[in-house]
Amino acid sequence: MLLEARAIARQSGLRYVYLGNVRDVEQAETTFCPGCKRPAVERDMFAIDVMNIVDGKCKSCGTAIAGVWK
Predict the structure, then answer these.
(1) What pLDDT was estimated at residue 24?
(2) Rounded distance between C-alpha atoms, residue 24 and residue 19, angstroms
(3) Of 56, 50, 60, which is closest to residue 68 (Cα–Cα)?
(4) Nearest alpha-carbon partner for 16 in 26, 31, 37, 35
């Protein structure tokens, strides 16, 4: 049901939809860059494993990623 809600949110135009507090099923905990579609933030339950954002932009393509990144 959560994966379905995530898909609906993405189809509705939301860019940064991810599921929290779940084990990564289909990379559901990952936030993807809306530009290049590569992982911008990779999570594992409560922790951020990989942050591919530098100065508020995707490290891969330079697309601005909304949020506070510290």
Answers:
(1) 65
(2) 8
(3) 56
(4) 31
Distance CA(25)–CA(31), nearest Å, equals: 13
**13 pLDDT exceeds 90?**
yes
d(CA 6, CA 27): 11
The reported pLDDT for the residue numbered 23 is 74
pLDDT at 17 over 80: yes
Q: Is pLDDT of 5 > 90?
A: yes
* Alpha-carbon distance values, 48 to 13, 52, 64 (Å): 24, 11, 19
The answer to whether residues 35 and 67 touch, using CB atoms and an 8 Å cutoff, is: no
